[in-house]
Amino acid sequence: MTHTLHREGIKKDTNDYVILAMVEGTDPQKLENIAELFRIVLKHNPINYTGKALFPELDKSQFPQIYKRTKIGMAVFDRREAILAALKEIKNRELGVSVVISGFFPHVEEDCRKLGLPMHTVNYSL
């Protein structure tokens, strides 16, 4: 599945974590911040990310410029440790970018608590 709210799995198969981030407007600092956020995300080796299939010839380091232009990006991780490390680094940078995390709820809740990240909204896919 491609949409973050409609991924599926069972408890024993929970290695599916998604980061979706976006900014609004044309403020140059916001646009640079989303590019920086994805420099961080891509450094942690997601298994898939926005544009990977469309631009297979691009190096991973070139994608943040795409997200700067589109103002949105998404990355999928298959390792909880990798998304946790990315989130920790993002939190420490305080970029002011809206970030949505999807995954096995008990893991996401626990990881947010570990990092001191308050959960704003919870969505369930029924």
**Which structural class best describes the helix and strand composition?**
alpha+beta
What is the CATH architecture annotation? 2-Layer Sandwich
Q: Return residue spans where pLDDT drops below 50 for at least 5 consecutive residues.
A: none
Number of strands: 4
Shape: globular
The succession of helices and strands, N to C, reads: EHEHEHEH
Percent of residues in beta strands: 15-25%
Span between N and C termini? 15 Å
Rg is 14 Å
Average the pLDDT over all residues and give the rounded result: 87
CATH topology category name: Alpha-Beta Plaits
Total domain modules: 1
- Give the biggest sheet: 4 strands, antiparallel
The number of helical elements comes to 4
CATH hierarchy, class: Alpha Beta
Q: What's the helical proportion of residues? A: 25-40%
The largest beta-sheet arranges its strands as 2-3-1-4
What does this structure look like?
This protein has 126 residues and is of the alpha+beta class. The chain has a single domain, classed as 2-Layer Sandwich (Alpha-Beta Plaits). It is built from four helices and four strands; from the N terminus they run βαβαβαβα.
